[in-house]
């Protein structure tokens, strides 16, 4: 009853922003992401009948508190689904995600955990079933089951059984680049879940956000099919700005942006003014990821590294989905 | 046929953002402003029957081009209204508005022009009639007819005769302060009219903006009546953020903010975190104005002057409406 899985993180180009069901983690809108090869989590799960509780090691540290609670609650779902509520797990996770890069480790983390745990406990889930399971640990993690460009279909059913990711092209369809700008100063902590909830509950712009998604998805999927970088980049950037605009209309208003965030956005616009197709996207935090084409590697790196407040730039390519080690 | 008038500029706390009629300058929503004593325009208009065209001097320079066209088009309206299409005017305007402060000189400019021109041509307009006339030169200028806190009622009539400002309290009701942070670098030019139109025509958040105004107005007017600074400041700041959020959802998206804009917003939030009630507001440009109470003068000035990119800080108090010199 032991398995090891590796999962990569992903970056949303059309954002997941708002839940319709908190417990099952069902989203208000479809989202679309690119799985990234540079950032992954490798997790080994072994179930023992002699354990009386789960044990969770992250990067060799024994974890307690909230992070442990989230893992053990998720393993409860796995045990229930497998009909094996009599076993507990020893979980070893190693994050190959530089946390300073501001890339969500929960996406790769829960994706690897779901894959390893379900296999270790003896379930044979296909990727779609695995995505449904993974979603219940961390919403955006359900997209990391697949490589490349992936859509998370929100689904319609109340039980969430049709809310899962699907790949929209083969994982190796298109070689683009994503640079994560690492900030010098410690990013201030703003809880993404809290901000999302406040926005859904109080922002007068939130309903328009939800209504705007289908058109974005149609356009960006066409752009991905035809490898139209300008179309994909401009839709992703506009979608990101629209998502962040909803927080400015929350009550009280707030923003995830910091002044360095703003400088990076300006630098990306400067790149475009000088003829380099580059586009930014920002999740529920201050960090900025920049999309560009392989041939502009040097120009983009140079520009991003020249920004006051940017300490490092980490580049990623499109990555693969879940694999078992 | 000669008259001189002085008008002060004003800063909107509930923004005028979007026209329902371009020619008559009729707004989509009511707005609310504070007239400022520190920034004014003094204009002398003299009509001569020997002139064959208007002549316009601004700060002793003879003006031609677009600015001249706007003035002479406005004087056409004055002549038509007065039934004196046979006379042309010599206009001398002096702006006591530091243009670097990013405070709209068109508000004080068209307000002073409307007052001086209508008096010089022999019309005796009351302030409400003057506000209707002024609005046709520059929308927000119609609020500068009155001192202190002023509401611009959008009106319902197609001819615009009920779209004018009204004072909501006596001009000397409440002594608060407004600091304009002057930026070191030249502000990049973004046309406010163009941005406003693009937002009205393409932003999916624009209808929600219009719907959100009545609630803001009720709350801020209560706050002004009761001199509740926190209420007034927080509504003004939220309204400004909501207005700027509409531009992020335009197609293509854009922003009037620059990185210094963002630094000043952060500094104002810092002031609040340290117990100083200060709030920002931003018009269709990068400049930031900060509202605070007289007793916090030193702290606010010190904080704003410490920001990289801020060259000067210009403080204003509530000002009077139109006066004739």
TrEMBL record, chains A, B:
SUPFAM superfamilies given in the database record: GHMP Kinase, C-terminal domain, Ribosomal protein S5 domain 2-like
Location of the Diphosphomevalonate decarboxylase-like N-terminal domain: 7-165
Molecular-function annotations in GO: ATP binding; diphosphomevalonate decarboxylase activity
Gene Ontology CC, one term: cytosol
Statement: the UniProt record of this protein carries the keyword Lipid metabolism: yes
GO aspect biological process, one term: isopentenyl diphosphate biosynthetic process, mevalonate pathway
Family that this chain belongs to: Belongs to the diphosphomevalonate decarboxylase family.
Name by which UniProt lists this protein: diphosphomevalonate decarboxylase
Organism: Lentibacillus cibarius
Phylogenetic classification of the source organism: Bacteria, Bacillati, Bacillota, Bacilli, Bacillales
Gene name of this polypeptide: mvaD
